[in-house]
């Protein structure tokens, strides 16, 4: 059995009523063998995350032991503090031959229910063995041994040793499983079961024979057989569910290990396995927080990857059209394939280009022609159509005496340069296919790279003799001395757009940036790759250099200083043979590899699931965002109102529009419908007349048409949500500053909270809707309406929340339940669950809390993870997730039912987050920070689709059998992607 994590030291202990409301996951389904003959092993572990929890490791250990035909009791039941062990657990302990304890240091420091299980097992079976698994030497820690000796004496105990990495990745080592397999001293329960099944089968045969003699007995046995078949079907269904669950846990653990580099498998397999694990849960079983956290980690790991295209053959050469619309690759040594560079989709059929290996290729400046060089010593010219490649000449360019290693076009497209293993370079007239000058000789080894200067007057060549040379294109004569600096063969070379610099890469694993005029390095060698540098390229603005290497990575470098830019683009499982920029802004890169894949990258990505919509350049005290995310209102340090529109031309908004705002929630739909000419104004800040009083609190109405502002002078003012123009006269709402405002769900009422510690409710025309709500003894920080509009929660600096009844009549203003106390500092944010049964709050104690809306009782312990004040909180429309924003500049996602965090924080804001909200039925999240920056994030429901969007295929059926299970029917990981035949 596993026990819940101990509460933080500062939090009050959970009461019995709270414990009763804890979520209790379904009990483990037990086999018939275990029911009849008990369990071979009972696995005791601690729930939660490292350094204490070992749930994933325990699940994998149980799975491996069951595969070896042992009856294992492994339960995910959760017992509340203060309760005794359940009858199920006591029964399992009584029927188990061996107790296995997973002992890591965190658990030994706070043993909880593990200790209870050990003591119960010893009382029941004094002579039966207890086998601990010592994680990272926990049982040899001199500080821990004295504290556990009372319930787990280790002096005369034999244990198994396991590594911390095995627990972190949830995979039990083979040695531990093998040694446990030798432990049982009696016949396995499964063997008794098979004997029993055999006996039952013989009995059924006898009963069937006897049914011939008695019609009455036949009917009795028929009924019994039917009941047994039904029980067998249910047992089989439970076994299938257990198999799918354990397989899903294994797939997730293996995927994490692959992405972490602990298993030498391509990341395409890792992504497909993770998606398969999510599909195994089925629609009726949404992924838990751990699964969603692993999904987010995968998106974070692959955040630079736009799309991954698997190919049947190794890709050895690549060319990109000047406009970045087309690609041509070389596969299978001599096959050319045309691609759409933006979608990574194939155009037309592959064609055979040469009779021998194609070593290089290049587009003409107009993108209409392609030149290829081959081991057959020739060059060939090709016409490039929209979807086709066709020979442009009947005969190839001939003249080299050995393999053509490199080719390129001159900037005007009139010439082609080539480098060969015959140690020469040649310049060719494209119109005549003839050389323009004699071969360029001077290198002492193969010419491996050629590039024209931007003005077309010079040619640079790189060679296996470790040097580069400059040549006069008109005369074919060398310019100056060879460039020396590489300590091994030069593999690739490129000119900067201004022609003043060169970059080269070579077998010495380095890049060198050269000053062309001086013929020497402009900076020390660029070190970072751990293998041959196969490809180099300048961005179109000349500010960045892209390199691709044998080590399987791409890197970006500052062209002026040589400093590395950002992280390497990792993911290829073998040597990257070529990489190129495909867009002028440098935000798209294409690469090919010997791992049989083509990949598109976006190195500018700052978040795996988010993108900025509005840049932050202000300092705001309060802010509000319209439901459609197109307008932001804020009060700056001068407490004056500001209103600005967010650009509608952001890529992220376009993507959102493509996915369909039809799925938006009720409020979003109203916002979309309430459009007029004023909403078509260009993005940017709107000029507003000075307001009579400074503003402390702001909120848009649900339809975005109105803006409520709470003033420092105690006033409530309404303004047009699109223009900022005042609507009606101000309302004298409070005797002091108004610090919080909130609209009712139907937009007919406005609630205000002030420094006078009171809450008031107003009709939209300024009339009071009831008497003041009093009870707090400090200023009101936040207000939130119950979804049905009949209740309101207030959060206060007095460290409490109150739930007010706003039903018209005598009960208006009465308190529902008792005040919610538990925060250790100001309560700054509050919201209701969609069904109105729970309240979620965040405070200046850096924590979130969950409350029962009817009673005011706390549900579970505080949710901790933020490092500074929690200033905003919202719940997804389906009630499954909480999102919180904090002054630590991060957002966090939580499972609303369990309070378990979903992965690592969402990073991207550069200032304190003041506001967060789910949009589009939970598909999106908006967040705004104190400097006015607005970010758009994908919600958890969209994460699987985003991961599928990086792929172009599902597993094959054979891969499913090998990677997943031959005993589970095939499920497409991404329903919209094709499933290859093989």
Question: What this model shows, in words?
Answer:
It is a single chain. The chain is an alpha+beta fold and 982 residues long. It contains 17 helices and 60 strands. The strands form 15 sheets. A 5-stranded parallel sheet has the order 2-1-3-4-5, sandwiched between helices. Strands 23, 24, 25, 26 and 27 form a 5-stranded antiparallel sheet that branches. It is globular, with a radius of gyration of 35 Å.
In short, what is this structure?
This protein is an alpha+beta fold and 982 residues long.
Strand content: 25-35%
Unreliable segments of 5+ consecutive residues: 1-30, 78-82, 648-681
Largest beta sheet: strand ordering = 2-1-3-4-5
Mean pLDDT score, rounded?
86
Termini separation comes to: 43 Å
Largest sheet descriptor: 5 strands, parallel
Overall helicity? 10-25%
Indicate the structural class. alpha+beta
Rg for CA atoms: 35 Å
Assign an overall shape.
globular
| Counted beta strands | 60
Topology:
Blueprint: H1 16-21, H2 32-37, E1 39-44, H3 55-67, E2 72-73, H4 87-94, E3 96-103, H5 105-109, H6 113-124, E4 130-135, H7 145-148, E5 160-162, H8 164-169, H9 174-181, H10 189-211, H11 215-259, H12 267-280, H13 289-301, E6 305-310, E7 315-320, E8 326-331, E9 335-340, E10 345-352, E11 358-363, E12 369-374, E13 379-384, E14 389-391, E15 404-409, E16 415-420, E17 425-429, E18 434-435, E19 447-452, E20 458-463, E21 467-472, E22 478-484, E23 490-495, E24 501-506, E25 510-515, E26 520-521, E27 526-527, E28 533-538, E29 544-549, E30 553-558, E31 564-570, E32 576-581, E33 589-593, E34 597-601, E35 610-614, E36 620-625, E37 631-636, E38 641-645, H14 651-659, H15 666-673, E39 684-686, E40 695-700, E41 706-711, E42 715-720, E43 726-732, E44 738-743, E45 749-754, E46 759-763, E47 780-785, E48 791-796, E49 800-805, E50 820-821, E51 827-832, E52 838-843, E53 847-852, E54 863-864, E55 870-875, E56 881-886, E57 891-895, E58 913-919, E59 924-929, E60 934-938, H16 943-949, H17 957-964
Parallel strand pairs: 1-2, 1-3, 3-4, 4-5
Antiparallel strand pairs: 6-34, 7-8, 8-9, 9-10, 11-12, 12-13, 13-14, 15-16, 16-17, 17-18, 19-20, 20-21, 21-22, 23-24, 24-25, 25-26, 25-27, 28-29, 29-30, 30-31, 32-33, 33-34, 35-60, 36-37, 37-38, 38-39, 40-41, 41-42, 42-43, 44-45, 45-46, 47-48, 48-49, 49-50, 51-52, 52-53, 53-54, 55-56, 56-57, 58-59, ...
